[in-house]
Design a protein that fits this description.
The complex is a heterodimer of chains A (about 110) and B (about 110).
Chain A: E1 5-7, E2 10-13, E3 19-24, E4 31-37, E5 44-50, E6 53-57, E7 65-68, E8 75-79, E9 88-95, E10 104-105, E11 109-113
Parallel strand pairs in A: 2-11
Antiparallel strand pairs in A: 1-3, 3-8, 4-5, 4-9, 5-6, 7-8, 9-10, 9-11
Chain B: E1 4-5, E2 10-14, E3 19-25, E4 30-38, E5 45-51, E6 56-59, E7 62-67, E8 72-77, E9 86-94, E10 100-102, E11 106-111
Parallel strand pairs in B: 2-11
Antiparallel strand pairs in B: 1-3, 3-8, 4-5, 4-9, 6-7, 7-8, 9-10, 9-11
The chains are: A mainly beta (about 110), B mainly beta (about 110).
Chain lengths: ~110, ~110
């Protein structure tokens, strides 16, 4: 399967714990995006990388959130000191510059904070 | 505030008929529009897109229409099939970045 993959698919954690999610984009896609989706809403943009550079961050990305893409391939999203309001589906997408603006999404990581 | 609005939370259509999903936007700086389909427990799947310089784009059974003056776009599915039953999201990109702004989605049910 050459699509976007995300791990883990599900994560249950207690309030105050740190969690980290991983995203592997489609091979050779140089752009990578993180979104968050809550029940009844569409995906909301969090941040975007072009290669290893983080070029855009939403105001939704509080200082408890950090994302990295160290070698321009996979990316990690870490949430520190989780809160119940962080419970959501975290979606990763990738795209290739010069081929249009379509983004291809992974299956998501569902986070539940108890 | 919601810059992309899908005002119909759900739509039911008979198999073989046309499905029309609507989307309105408020930001005149949007320059590219996309439709995604989402099944439960899966990520959104790209369906079709349109640039703001066009008013129509067609791909098989799917056609997207854009009315810039009304800040409105629609997705037509003809003929509708039961496998089209899913949540459809409208998304828009601003002209200064790559972030997509999504609507809340419309749940389409195609009945046999």
């Amino acid at each position: 399967d050459t699509g976007v993959s995300q791990n883990p698919r599900h994560k249950i954690t207690k309030r105050g714990q740190n969690v980290t999610f991983r995203c592997d984009p489609i091979s050779e896609h140089n752009r990578l995006y993180w979104y968050r989706q809550t029940l009844g809403q569409g995906p909301e943009f969090l941040t975007y990388f072009q290669n290893e550079a983080q070029l855009e961050k939403s105001r939704l990305l509080s200082d408890r959130f950090s994302a990295e893409r160290p070698k321009g391939s996979f990316s990690t999203l870490e949430i520190q000191r989780t809160e119940q309001g962080d419970s959501a589906m975290y979606l990763c997408a990738s795209s290739l510059s010069g081929t249009g603006y379509e983004q291809y999404f992974g299956p998501g990581t569902r986070l539940t904070v108890t | 505030d919601q810059q992309v609005k899908q005002n119909s939370p759900s739509l039911s259509v008979q198999e073989g008929r046309i499905s029309i999903l609507n989307c309105d936007y408020t930001n005149s700086m949007f320059d590219y529009f996309l439709w995604y389909k989402k099944y439960p427990a899966e990520g959104p799947t790209f369906l079709i897109s349109i640039s703001s310089i066009k008013d129509k784009n067609e791909d098989g059974r799917f056609t997207v229409f854009l009315n810039k003056s009304a800040k409105h776009l629609s997705l037509h599915i003809v003929p509708s099939q039961p496998g089209d039953s899913a949540v459809y999201f409208c998304a828009a990109k601003g002209n200064s970045g790559y972030a997509l702004n999504f609507g809340k989605g419309t749940s389409l049910l195609v009945t046999p």
